[in-house]
Amino acid sequence: MGTNSNATASPAQPEPELAGQTVVIIGGTSGIGLETARRARVEGAKLILTGRNPDRLQRAATELDALATAAFDANDPASIHSFFKGLPTQIDHVMVTAGGPYYGPLLKMDSDQVRRAMSDHVVLAVEVARNIAGKVPPGGTLLLMGGTGGRRINGELGIVSAVTAAMPALTATLALELAPVRVNLIAAGFVDTPLSASLLGDELENRRSHLRTTLPIRRVVQPVDVAALAVHIMSNTALTGATYDIDGGQQLVAS
Asked: Which residues are 147's β-sheet partners?
């Protein structure tokens, strides 16, 4: 009786989504940035990581066998220019996760605080876009981070709502100006990161418990969830100029 050779054949393994590609992550030493670096590495990418803290940067680079690292303040335009000018190789994708939110009434912020709040997201995105022109090939990605929480305007959020509203329009405009390089925005709700822990302090566990019972997904969004979306956006070359929400349905329920 003959045997069917196909019965014992191993299924073909899918090609890693980012095999042979180089990913730059600005703010890649913790939270969403670090988790995206891990996911991209698993998918075959070579990594270039940046961050402000040299010790954390070195730990991340060692863990992920990074191709290169650079320690600098991402909100310094001269440092951004110097970093991209000095890159020795073509890069395929750039993700920007640097910058944190500024909460509080607008009229209690001085002019420098307002400029810094906008610079941490809007100006940084433009500076990175300006410096990757000609370095990222057609189909490559500039991937920005934003949020969904600021869409509900209230006095406690202050300038966060203005930045939240600006980022999708900025992303779409950059997608036209950088084409055929793709530009997209991930808008996250609450994500359980070290930054969230530092902002909430003793209220962190209460926030987690509240989200577990109120979110439609009945769990808290983790950095690995955002990382999976980020790598998909990098690998799917039909996506540009769009905003991708990832908040577990947080916008659908009362905060």
From this structure: 188
Contact 131, 139 (CB under 8 A): no
182, with CB counted inside 10 A (0-12, 13-18, 19+), is buried
Query: Can you give the residue ranges of every domain in the chain?
Result: 16-246
**Rounded-to-integer distance, Cα 148 and Cα 164, Å:** 7
Alpha-carbon distance 109 to 114, whole Å? 6
Between 57 and 99, the more confident residue is 57
Classify 16-246 by CATH class. Answer: alpha beta
Q: What is the pTM of this model?
A: 0.90
Contact 138, 196 (CB under 8 A): no
The encoded tokens of residue 135 equal: 């370095």
CA angle 5, 11, 14 (to 5 degrees): 150
What pLDDT does 183 receive? 98
- The sheet with strand 182-188 has its strands ordered as 68-71, 46-51, 22-26, 93-96, 141-147, 182-188, 243-246
Q: Helix H segments across the chain?
A: 5-8, 31-42, 54-64, 77-85, 111-118, 124-132, 159-178, 194-200, 204-214, 223-235
